[in-house]
Design brief:
It contains 12 helices and no strands. The protein is an all-alpha fold. It is elongated and about 55 Å long.
């Protein structure tokens, strides 16, 4: 096992390699390294080795337990593969980078409890960072809960990247409001948003009259 000390770049590289060579001991030891980039690499190595526990991840989503944004963001990313890890703490993180990744992971789960859903709706409509709003809208689409539909429709009036994501997120919904929102987007000033809306409308099942 390579020691987890000395030059940061060398140590981080050794930890990454450990994830490919089966050195669980090195990866576990690196989880307490003083440098956050090394700790983040250790999480990735443990995940690759199948040695990362849900409890470890859950703890690292808490600001009080892990002060480094880099590590909390990596933990939120890896939580996508753990359905039993609640991302709610990360959805209240003070740093937008963690929030964005937490939203993405909820979308990967494709399910959200009431509190998580409510937080996604709040972030989609109120967060100052557009990337967070976009990620929250994407997660709402992936979850597909009708309670999130109004927030997705509201996002159709946001910045262009958010509008594009909102258009895609309308796809799972059969409600008339979703179709109407897509029809409004046919005249959006952003050509990519218009194209997404057109493609999704074309893909919707036609309703034949009696």
């Amino acid at each position: 096992m390579t020691a987890v000390s000395g030059d940061k770049a060398v140590t981080r590289r050794a930890v990454i390699v450990a994830g490919h060579t089966g050195d669980v001991a090195l990866a576990e030891a690196a989880c307490t390294h003083h440098d956050p980039d090394v700790r983040a690499a250790a999480l990735g190595a443990l995940a690759r080795l199948g040695a990362l526990s849900a409890s470890t991840l859950a703890g690292l989503l808490l600001v009080a337990a892990e002060p480094a944004v880099t590590v909390r963001r990596r933990a939120a990313e890896l939580a996508a593969g753990f359905l039993d890890v609640s991302l709610l703490p990360a959805l209240h993180d003070p740093e937008w980078e963690v929030l964005e990744m937490a939203c993405w992971s909820v979308g990967e789960h494709e399910v959200a409890d009431d509190e998580t859903l409510a937080r996604l709706i709040e972030l989609a409509g109120a967060h100052e960072e557009a990337l967070v709003r976009e990620a929250a809208v994407a997660a709402l689409g992936a979850v597909g809960d009708a309670r999130g539909l109004p927030a997705i429709i509201a996002a159709c009036s946001d910045k262009a990247p958010v509008r594009r994501r909102a258009a895609v997120s309308l796809a799972p919904f059969d409600e008339a409001e979703a179709e109407e929102a897509l029809r409004v987007l046919l005249s959006d000033r952003d050509w990519q948003t218009r194209q997404i809306a057109e493609d999704l409308l074309d893909a919707r099942p036609s309703v034949e009259s009696d």
